[in-house]
Design a protein that fits this description.
two-stranded antiparallel sheet; 10% strand; globular; disordered C terminus
Length: 206
């Protein structure tokens, strides 16, 4: 696992750096839109669990009002749609709100592919992932669980899918996740907002 991990880190760094440079005009457009749409910062920071359960702050484009409850999954909010801004609604549906995580990847806090980082207070999910060793690797921008149900699967299933990723860790698995993630984004599959009984962990106040 270690040799591939070193190659993976190099690819993560250079690919993310290139993407950050190429997408800088888009970053500017999104930033201006967020500032025009509502008061508050352009970026949203949230404490997440990284490799070996070390805490870090994930970056996203802010997609909700500043008075939205923090550190709480969107599915647990009542009338969550009332907190989401017009620009934020577009960002979330297209997953463009996740782009600032390229910075997290460059810093080494995240990878392009890996289990999605849990919220710091999602103790049940963190504990469940311990069973599969999913807390022992760098979390990702997208992962195996993301393309196998995302917001529509249970916490136990998410941890199980993360475990499957660990079992099949390697280039072929990462390529499979990468290309299927692109299809999921284009199709806008398995995105659930609001208190609808889903088990989403990613779309909290952003």
């Amino acid at each position: 696992m270690k040799p591939y991990t070193l190659v993976k880190r190099a690819v993560d760094f250079f690919l993310s750096l290139i993407m950050l440079i190429v997408l800088s005009p888009l970053f500017l457009i999104i930033s201006i839109s967020i500032k025009i749409d509502s008061k508050g910062p352009v970026f949203f920071k949230q404490k997440r669990i990284g490799k070996n359960k070390k805490e870090f702050y994930i970056l996203k484009f802010r997609s909700m009002m500043c008075d939205a409850p923090s550190n709480m999954p969107t599915h647990a909010l009542k009338n969550s749609e009332s907190y989401i801004t017009a620009t934020g609604n577009i960002l979330r549906k297209t997953s463009l709100d996740e782009l600032p995580q390229l910075i997290n990847i460059i810093k080494g806090e995240m990878s392009i592919i890996g289990p999605r980082p849990a919220l710091w207070n999602q103790y049940d999910l963190i504990k469940e992932r311990d069973k599969y060793g999913a807390n022992d690797i760098v979390p990702g921008l997208t992962g195996w669980a993301q393309i196998n149900g995302r917001d529509r699967i249970s916490m136990e299933d998410k941890a199980r899918y993360d475990g499957q990723y660990i079992e099949n860790y390697g280039l072929l698995m990462d390529l499979k996740v990468f290309f299927k993630s692109i299809l999921c984004v284009l199709k806008r599959e398995d995105i659930v907002e609001g208190n609808s009984g889903s088990n989403a962990e990613d779309k909290s106040k952003e």
